Amino acid sequence: MKNTKALLRTAALLLGCGLLAGSNCPGPEPQPPDAGLYHTYDEINRELHDLATQYSAIAQVHSLGKSVEGRDLWALKISAAVAQDQGEPEIVLLGCHHAREWIAVDVPFLIGRHLLQNYHRDTLVTRLLDHATIWVAPMINPDGHQYSVSSQRLWRKNRRNNNDGSFGVDLNRNYGHAWGGPGSSGDTFSEIYRGPAPFSEPETQAIRDFLQSRPVKALISYHNFSQLVLYPWGYTSNPAPDRALLDQLANGIADRIRAVHGVRYTPQQAADLYLASGDTGDWLYALRQVPALTIELRPSSSVPGFELPEDQIQPTFEENLPAALYVMQWAAAAGSPSP
Length: 339
Ligand code: 0X9
Ligand code: ZN
Prior knowledge:
Blueprint lengths: L1 H14 L25 H14 L4 E8 L5 E7 L11 E6 L7 H16 L4 H9 L1 E5 L4 H9 L51 H11 L3 E9 L3 E4 L11 H19 L4 E4 H4 L6 H9 L3 E6 L15 H23 L4
Parallel strand pairs: 3-4, 3-5, 5-8, 6-7
Antiparallel strand pairs: 1-2, 2-4, 6-8
The structure holds N~2~-sulfamoyl-L-arginine and zinc ion.
């Protein structure tokens, strides 16, 4: 059957479809969106479900909610006690608030897969999953990502129809702490459009409801590019109450990243990059006073910018793995009841 279809297609291409009228002219087959070695929404969806099947004792897939266009926001829950909720410390890895930042999907996904593949193989991973729960939600903006893959590579926002000819809200300006402040825009056409109200978007609502319902002790939100490790506050240059601890953790992350391939990520308060209001980290930090970090992945500068070559997926994952494990270990220990 596949061969017959292929033959018909070839004939149609050679002769033109009109000549094949009556032969059920197949036309060109619609191709699924292709991001090369980067994962698309459909691929991430399939792989997360496959992992949950393969590692059913320690992994589950949950939908945290739906996007504007109705795609599920998938998250992998990973723990030795995955079927139970015993209040153990939880650490959350989020990817791809911004559509064009494809590497920010693959890094948290590969970290999650590494945890599953190394339970009862690696002592550190085993101890971690025995005492903590890790959540990996690698694609918070699936509509925007799909649009970036199929139509406009450098799309950033979600795909909200603003009903004035413009599309999209910047999900990293839509969270509810200091919403509407500096570094966000009320102009619907702007790349940093904050939306009409805090949490106006189903994607940020889903993350808000999820984080509020869980005993989260640390969060990393992955973005690119610039190679930075950012901590709250981002909406003001004032130091966060836990600035010393946040700075220490951010330095620890940067040191561990550099130890792998010698690549430098700069630790700093988010506001020192630029002021931006309504981002994920500020909202979670305000809610829970736990480390809520933003890691800006490779590359370092605008060439190649968002279009990081595929051969950098693996090294970017490799350098970020020990950094993520460090945060997870810290949070697992900090979140445990003292003896
Ligand atoms: O602007 C953003 O949302 C992030 N950078 S990106 O290039 N990935 O878009 C940085 C957010 C950091 N937070 C603050 N500076 N408040
Ligand atoms: Zn981003």
